[in-house]
Amino acid sequence: MNQMKKSRAAVLNIGLLATPEGRQAKAGAEQGHIRILKDAYVLAEDGVVVAVGTGQPNAQWMEGADAVDAAGRLVTPGLVDAHTHLVFGGWRAHELQQKLSGVPYLEILAKGGGILSTVRETRAAGEDALAEKAGLALDGMLGQGTTTAEAKSGYGLSLGDELKQLSVVKRLNRSHAVDLVPTLMAAHAVPEEYRADRRAYVDLVIKQIIPAAAGEGLAEFCDVFCETGVFSPEEAREILLAGQRAGLQSKIHADEIDAIGGSELAGELGAVSAEHLIAMRDSGIRALKAGGVIACLLPATSFYLGKPYARARGLIAAGVPVAVASDFNPGSCPSHSLQLCMNLASWQYRMQPEEILTAVTLNAAAAIGRAETVGSTEPGKLADLVVWEADSLDYLMYRFGSNLARAVLKRGKVVAGRL
Question: Please, what is the average pLDDT of the chain?
Answer without folding.
Answer: 96
